[in-house]
Amino acid sequence: MQYKPNIYSQTSHIVGFTDYLKPPKAFHDVNVEELLWRASMSPRIRGHPFHFVPKVAFMFLATNQTSNVKKVDGNARMHPESPVFHERSQEVEWGMVSLIEAVRRLLANALLDILNQHFVLLSETCIPLYNFSTVYSYLINSTRTFVEVFDDPSSVRYYLSNYTRITVDQWRKGWAWFAIDREVAIESISDRQYFPEFLKCKGHCFPDEHYLPTFVHLKFAARNANRTLTWVDWSKGGPHPMEYRSPNVTAALLSSLRSGYGRKCEYNGRSTDVCFLFARKFMPDTLDNLLRLAPQIMYFST
């Protein structure tokens, strides 16, 4: 009798493109270390063997007082226990290292969606100055990232002597509100060289104004526009920018912000007057005026 070996065929499940392109679930049970590890993965082959529509991830670093969100939702006041943030918020303190840890978690969660190609950090007091089509086109077609980076000698007081991997001449400052592409986002959440230095910070040393500007200056200077896309008015001085209230919100103000008060900047090698896509700090009582003026000034659909 001829011997015929048993042949077992086993097909392992391979996730197809349809499943691969599905956005990840908003809730997951991984810890921060696992989250950063998973988010740091990146395909080595350039291009996409499937129909690819890039997305922009708008990430909000928000306080509990997100009344604008609550008003749209039909309620009177925002609480961290509301369905929007229930069991999802973590304590972050102004000026402390917990701020940049929170930003890394936001980036890591957004990176889980392979379609997200640009990442914008905003606050609950930020507003768009242009409609979505304009904002999307500006970001997707840009050849630069937008992280404000400048050398401010006064900020050296926040430089600690135990930052052994960063020298004073490498130290940079910039406002926290950025727009970066996927490569910069992956590299920043994977950073094991400079980020641990900022974790040594104790007290109010404002790492949110120094870590990413320093990191981008050291790693991606040639690709960075060295400017932010978020208008902030610091003309009054002090540790906090000007707050816009309802009487301030007029068609003239929004038009001025859209033009950057006559500023010019560079976009993909050409001069433009579209320098800011967002603005802050707009308080909750400005919402009605903003909704009324949006179709007129920003050409939002009513």
UniProtKB/TrEMBL annotation:
One of its GO terms (molecular function) is glycosyltransferase activity. It is a single-pass type II membrane protein. It is found in: Membrane. This is Core-2/I-branching beta-1,6-N-acetylglucosaminyltransferase family protein. The keyword Glycosyltransferase applies. Pfam families: Branch (PF02485). GO terms for cellular component: membrane. Keywords: Glycoprotein, Glycosyltransferase, Membrane, Transferase. InterPro entries: BC10-like (IPR044174), Glyco_trans_14 (IPR003406).
